[in-house]
Amino acid sequence: MENQNEEDHMVEFTNPEALNSTNPIPRPRMVVIVKKCRQLGLDPGGFYQPGYKDGAKRRLQMMCLGRDWDPETRKYGSRRTIDEELRVSSVEEILRVSIANFYTTSGRLGLHQDRDESRKSLKEGLPVVSISTGDSADFLYGDQRDIGKAESVVLESGDVLIFGGRSRHIFHGVTSIIPDSAPMNLLEETKLRPRRLNLTFRQY
After folding, report:
1. Cβ neighbours of residue 142 under 8 Å, at least 6 residues apart?
2. Which UniProt keywords apply (predicted)?
3. Which H/E stretch holds residue 33?
4. Is the pLDDT of residue 54 over 50?
5. What's the CATH code of the domain at 174?
6. For 73-90, what is each residue's pLDDT tens digit?
7. For 154-169, how does the pLDDT look when each residue is reduced to its tens digit (9 = 90+)?
8. Distance between CA atoms of 82 and 46, rounded to whole angstroms?
9. SS3 sequence, 153-171?
10. Taking the model in full, what pTM does it have?
11. Mapping DSSP to helix (H, G, I), strand (E, B) and coil, where does residue 62 land?
12. For the chain, which terminal residue's Cβ has fewer other Cβ atoms within 10 angstroms, N or C?
């Protein structure tokens, strides 16, 4: 698995404006990413399990960097609603959105669109950039919220997914996490539990 993970991973999407990077993030950089996320995740305002008023919980742990995103209201704010932790303190931070999701082996994320950013950002099709580390994930995507019609691809540790332009509003989600698929050397260097850490970046 270690040797395989050092190779380039190219995934061709039906829409050419959505693609998986041909130059995955090298392991040393992934080590830095994982360690920094752990540090931030343990601080106030770090990882938590998002929930809804009806008591339902998301099947992942989430941490917002920059603007905070509330899954209940589907809106961004400067403070996290669960504990009022201040998330942004400058104009630059207000414009940036980064969300870290941590999945266990039972983690899932239903088909959805990233459409809660500013009207300007959505109209211009500014891209969403996603970085995968740790265990591999079965990733679904399509032009409608229909699992039966969606296409799938495996995202491995180090893969970078970018969708913008006409592909900015694709439906996408995670159906399963592949257990024990993370590169062993990454686990050893970061002490990361065999799980998946995913970061997404976008412009508000």
Report:
1. 111, 149, 150, 151, 170, 171, 172
2. Dioxygenase, Iron, Metal-binding, Oxidoreductase
3. helix 27-42
4. yes
5. 2.60.120.590
6. 888 877 676 666 555 544
7. 999 999 998 888 889 9
8. 11
9. EEECCCCEEEECHHHCCCE
10. 0.82
11. strand
12. N
Contact 157, 9 (CB under 8 A): no
- The domain tally of the chain equals 1
Angle at 201 between CA 18 and CA 19, to 5 degrees: 15
Distances, alpha carbon 2 to alpha carbons 75, 155, 179, 191, in Å: 40, 15, 15, 16
**From CA 1, how far away is CA 182, in angstroms rounded?**
8
Answer left, alpha or beta for residue 36, where phi above 0 means left and psi between -120 and 50 means alpha: alpha
For residues 68 and 155, the model is more confident at 155
Give the strand pairing for 128-134 and 109-112.
unpaired
Strand ordering across the sheet containing 196-203: 18-20, 160-163, 128-134, 196-203, 96-103, 61-66
The average pLDDT across 111-127 equals 93
Confidence bin at 68 (pLDDT 50/70/90):
confident
9 appears as a binding residue in the annotation: no
